[in-house]
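Appendix C reproduces, verbatim, an entry submitted by the partner laboratory led by Prof. M.T., so that reviewers can inspect both the input and the predicted structure.
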Amino acid sequence: MDYQNVIVDQRGTVTVLTLNRPERLNAWNNDMMYEMRDVVERANADAAVSAIVFTGAGRAYCSGADIGGWAQQIQGGEAPRGSATAGEDNWLAFLRRMPKPTIAAVNGVAVGVGVTHILPMDIRIASENARFGFSFVKMALVPELASSYFLPQLVGLGRAQEWCLTARMVEGEEALRAGLVSEVVPHERLIARACELGEMIGQHAPAAVARVKKVLEMNATDPDVQSVMLRENAQNASARAEPDHKEAVAAFMEKRTPVFRR
């Protein structure tokens, strides 16, 4: 595919996907989303890729939905709808069926869908220039893309309510204290740090990484700890029967670096 709205760069084992509509502050539209999905699918099909990093060109990460497109739909008599949430294979469902880890490296403003589409990602870090806004109420809408599920999990219900009802901008350090992101780094170090995390993940068995992602997704909100443990046991029973576990044990005993399947 000839990408018009994203830039793809391979850094070691990490695929870096840059949203590239800087003149519109990387506003989200259908074409951008389809290109993003294509990059993610290709990265997941490549055994040499350990993780996918998302970032933005220019001073914004993603300023939200392209409101100009909504205006055109309204003028044409259509009811505007978010492309990320449409259909059974929406952005959330798509990400969840992709086994390789995703890392959001938020370089600037992330508003609306510009922040909600990163909530299901595995790791979120931010530059010191990052700012976040859950601004749906300003458009007379409610938070979408399952953000009313993910955001309270990450930052707590009270804080999620305050952020969404006021629609105020949240600075990176506040996002860090709340748990929305796990790190705030100097702007010039953002991509390097995201790639470092991706390379760290790449040291582990891909099948094990996919299993960890799956078990955390299944168990994070289940209050039945017995069910949680049973799912963990089932995943580990399968893992122990595979070569990666045996290689990890042998490498530990032999004091060497393991060589996992790719």
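Residues 206-254 form one domain. Additional entries are available on request from the coordinating office.
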